[in-house]
Design brief:
heterodimer; A: 371 residues; alpha/beta; Cytidine Deaminase, domain 2; 2 domains; eight-stranded mixed sheet; 14% strand; elongated; disordered N terminus; disordered C terminus; B: 345 residues; extended; Eukaryotic translation initiation factor 3 subunit H (chain A); eIF3h (chain A)
């Protein structure tokens, strides 16, 4: 097992340490995701938990939801995101797993997967799905997120997430007020726990891979007779490494990420406004109450002076209704999403700037002498 | 692949030769996608130890004229085989097909696979079942894919279609003529990154590989390119030293490649470079600023109250909200402008 490497801090209380995905499941997820792109693809994972390592051995897609004819891509996407916890799919899932069992596939629900672009996957929907899985189906389940956009730029982007136990508790209670957050000490960074993902091949697949045109031949090659012959018999590219990582297009990625970031900030802003509105109305109500209390006190003083029984002073609880504090869940989820973007940009900037310096160094050799 | 079979391929009529309604003629091209192959191999590993081979159904898409099929998906079908008889779980096959069609409505039944290279009477029986009218692939021929999975030997993949043979109807039921057809293993652009990672694990003892970060995969690519360049320059040097045989073709190829290098004014490069690197760095900087701001905002929202908890709920909370808001607004304005300039470029 390779050394785990995660963005999020490792959780001690998590029943799973790592996720190991079979090549078969990886390929199926990639196929489904790229087929559905740009709509979100979702499906279920099956596998086994072996000493804290969740081995995902197979997966299957959820039935495509027929979006209403007038529906745009958005509604199709939201239907697809909601699919993992849809009632109809639970039946489908059970049926599929039952059939899997007959052919000796690990018939154990291991979670679900979804596709995304540019890391835009943290939403209430995702969290609700994972909550549903962790609560209803099996504690040891994960959400695998495959980023189609990022995978096309080189390295495969496949991440496994779980909800942390503190968040599970809070979500079960459904309370995300300032007070409850202070008490549970839940921060937005703690919503999701990322688990290290490793890819695992069976012996047969290893054997197959060794037959495929793999690395560049190292032995002496025969010299081609003509240029045409050389071009006609161009050797097949190796599977690894794939040179997509050397692609120099930077702007589309930056533009997309900036758009997404702006969108998130917009959401954050709206949510803050909601909270501010709440604070204002709370303050208003509070001042009304204070005024009322002062008035009642004065009245009572007058009544005492007039030798009358004082009026009760806690009547304000019936008279005034304090506004309900809006849930901070949306803010937290959104914050986590922004954090995800920021990390993504960090990773991208590291590669991009290296590539750009390389290009400059290549095109202006004298730059080296000057520096 | 193991030694690819070479055979002459002839177009010939298939199916019962009812004059007038000729089903389809070969040749047929079969394209196999890796995930289907992986799935077959996975099934082999999960068979009962006494089972010699396992079979399953192939799903995929067929081109409009039916001459090219693409195997995209497959699933295992339980079956039992003895000396005298073979039994395929038809119910299972139907249920599974229905379930698969719900998830992938575009995929159709293509044929079946078996995990051994041998073709026998049972193969013919099953082949006729898959190619029959009604539930089968009729009028298109059913494709039969064999994947040999003997340990220690190369994996051998063969694809066939069949033509009926036999003098009486009873005989023709359990016999057919398997015609080899060429197949091709193809993967799409999207699967490349997945296959890359999977094949990275092939030389490792534990057959596993952790996912790579962007920088790691960049490093791998660069090292590989450097190796290739070294090799080419080595060859060129050897030619210059008259140690290797010079080749006109290679020379021409290299010259063509070298002439692709753009000739641009250094000043232009410098300018473009600076523009782009600034873009990258600004976005990275802004993204991190935003992250910090959000963190701060979250902390303020929950922490400001702790300090002021004793003073009642209303006042201080509202104030802290106001502060955050101000900070938000100012930053938003600044960012918005920066962003617009960026995207216009």
């Amino acid at each position: 097992m390779a050394r785990p490497r995660t963005d999020a801090p490792p959780m001690r209380d998590s029943p799973l340490r790592a996720v190991q995905v079979e090549a078969l499941a990886v390929m199926k997820i990639i196929k489904h995701s790229s087929q559905q792109h740009p709509t979100i693809a979702t499906g279920a994972l099956v596998g086994l938990d072996v000493n804290g390592v969740l081995q995902i051995t197979n997966c299957f897609t959820f039935p495509t939801v027929n979006a209403p004819a007038d529906g745009q891509q958005d509604s199709a996407s939201s239907l697809a995101t909601a699919a993992p916890r849809a009632k109809a799919n639970t039946g489908y899932q059970n049926e599929m797993i039952r059939l899997f069992k007959e052919v000796n596939v690990d018939a154990n629900n291991a979670g679900w997967y979804m596709s995304t672009t540019m890391g835009n996957f943290i939403s209430q929907n995702t969290i609700e799905n994972q909550f549903f899985y962790q609560k209803e189906i099996n504690e040891k389940t994960v959400a695998l997120v495959h980023d189609v956009g990022r995978s096309s730029q080189g390295a495969l982007s496949l991440k496994a997430f779980r909800l942390s136990s503190t968040f599970m508790t809070a979500y079960r209670e459904g309370k995300f007020t300032v007070e409850s957050l202070q008490k549970s000490n839940l921060r937005y960074q703690d919503i999701l726990v990322e688990l290290p993902v490793t890819i695992h091949n069976s012996h047969l697949i290893t054997s197959l891979l060794h037959q495929l045109p793999a690395p560049v031949p190292t032995e002496e090659l025969s010299i081609p007779p003509t240029l045409d012959a050389l071009q006609a018999n161009a050797p097949a590219g190796p599977l690894a490494p794939n040179f997509a990582a050397l692609d120099l297009s930077i702007d589309p990625f930056l533009e997309k990420t900036s758009d997404l970031l702006l969108e998130s900030i917009e959401t954050h802003h709206t949510e803050l406004n909601n909270h501010q509105y709440y604070q204002r109305s709370l303050a208003r109500e509070q001042s009304k109450i204070t005024a009322w209390q002062a008035k009642r006190k004065a009245e009572n003083a007058a009544r005492v002076a007039a030798k009358q029984a004082p009026l009760p002073e806690d009547e304000w609880q019936r008279l005034f209704k304090l506004p309900v504090e809006p849930s901070r869940l949306e803010i937290m989820v959104n914050s986590r999403q922004i954090e995800q973007y920021a990390r993504q940009v960090d990773g991208f900037a590291a590669g991009a700037s290296a590539k750009m310096f390389a290009v400059r160094g290549n095109l202006i050799p004298e730059a080296d002498n000057r520096d | 692949m193991a030694v690819p079979d070479s055979f002459l391929h002839l177009a010939r009529p298939l199916g019962p030769a009812t004059v007038g309604s000729q089903p389809t003629t070969t040749p047929l091209k079969v394209v196999v996608q890796p995930q289907a192959l992986f799935s077959i191999l996975d099934h082999t590993l999960r068979r009962h130890p006494e089972q010699e081979r396992v079979i399953g159904t192939l799903l995929g898409v067929r081109s409009e004229d039916g001459t090219e099929v693409e195997i995209r998906n497959c699933y295992a079908v339980p079956h039992t085989e003895t000396q005298e008889q073979v039994e395929v779980d038809m119910d299972y096959q139907k249920q599974m097909q229905a379930l698969h069609l719900r998830a992938n409505p575009r995929e159709v039944l293509i044929g079946w696979y078996a995990t051994s290279s041998k073709l026998d009477t049972f193969s013919a029986l099953i082949q006729n079942f898959y190619g029959q009218q009604g539930d089968g692939t009729y009028p298109h021929p059913a494709v039969h894919l064999t994947v040999s999975t003997n340990p220690g030997e190369d994996i051998e993949i063969r694809s066939y279609i069949s033509a009926p043979i036999g003098v009486t109807p009873e005989r023709s039921e359990d016999s057919c003529l398997f015609l080899p057809v060429p197949y091709e293993l193809k993967y799409g652009e999207a699967e490349k990154s997945g296959l890359e990672l999977i094949s990275l694990a092939k030389d490792r003892e534990d057959r596993s590989q952790a996912t790579l970060t962007d920088v790691e995969s960049l490093e791998k690519s660069i090292v590989q390119v450097l190796d290739l360049l070294d090799r080419v320059s080595n060859y060129v040097n050897n030619v210059l030293d008259e140690e290797a045989t010079p080749s006109q073709a290679v020379g021409q190829y290299l010259l063509n490649a070298l002439s692709l290098a753009p000739k641009v004014d250094p000043a232009n490069i410098e300018r473009d470079f600076n523009n782009h690197i600034q873009d990258v760095l600004v976005i990275a900087y802004l993204a991190n600023t935003i992250r910090t701001q959000i963190d701060l905002s979250n902390r303020l929202a929950t922490a400001a109250l702790t300090a002021a908890a004793t003073e009642g709920i209303g006042g201080p909370g509202g104030e802290s909200g106001g502060h955050q808001k101000g900070g938000q607004d100012g930053r938003r304005g600044g960012r918005g402008r920066g962003q617009n300039r960026r995207t216009e470029e």
